[in-house]
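idk why but the lab printer keeps eating my pages so im just putting this in chat instead. protein + zinc ion:
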Amino acid sequence: MSDNVCYVDAYARSVEARVRAVEPSAEAGRGALVLLDRTVFYPGGGGQPADRGVLRTADGRTWHVVAARKAGDEIWHELEPGEEPPAPGGLDGSAAAAIFTADLDWDRRLALMRTHTALHALCGVVWRDYGALVTGGNMEPGGGRMDFEFERMSGELVGAIETTVNEELLRARDVRVNVLPRDEAFAIPDLIRTKINLLPEGIEQIRTIEIVGLDLQADGGTHVANTREVGTIRVTGYESKGRINKRIRMELVRPA
Ligand SMILES: [Zn+2]
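predcted complex ->
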């Protein structure tokens, strides 16, 4: 099982690790895969894309990581296509595994953390003020979209939502990560709306992200520690995906 620091400390930018396994490129245009014993790379999921960054050794060699992904409990790092992966074990061919530094593209990750937290603030406001459930979402660094079961959404409401979300962000609310036993999580009414009941039975621990006083969701992503780090948002569009399903698009206003 890969030890991933990102789930407990979203601000960890790098970690020292050893290569446990390497898979050569499976197809043309795809990079080789590297499994480390520890990492800081978020493997993607819940609408948040996987991290990018580099693996480095003390002697100055560098490998570019274009994505990370989860396979079972392991997190694999995908190298740029064509890059020769490092060998497991020592760099000089000895048996003792060499130390690598796994280093995030931090500007991109921080933009994703701010964006992800902004989207939760949007969900929190839409739920609290309009009772609308979120059905999905996606993001890139600096912007994203959320889909809601929100029959009466209109351009006017969207303007009001933008104003309220920005007021909430500027209240400097703390953002907390918690891990709860499954039955405890199921007893929290607020979590029902994120369709916690769809989580596979085998999952015993539920990780939650709480914007204190505004929003609580079961979530695997990385977030900033306080909403003041988000700055403000702008709603850039909304559209109907059917009679009930509506999509709201937003972006961050303040540069990181
Ligand atoms: Zn989320």
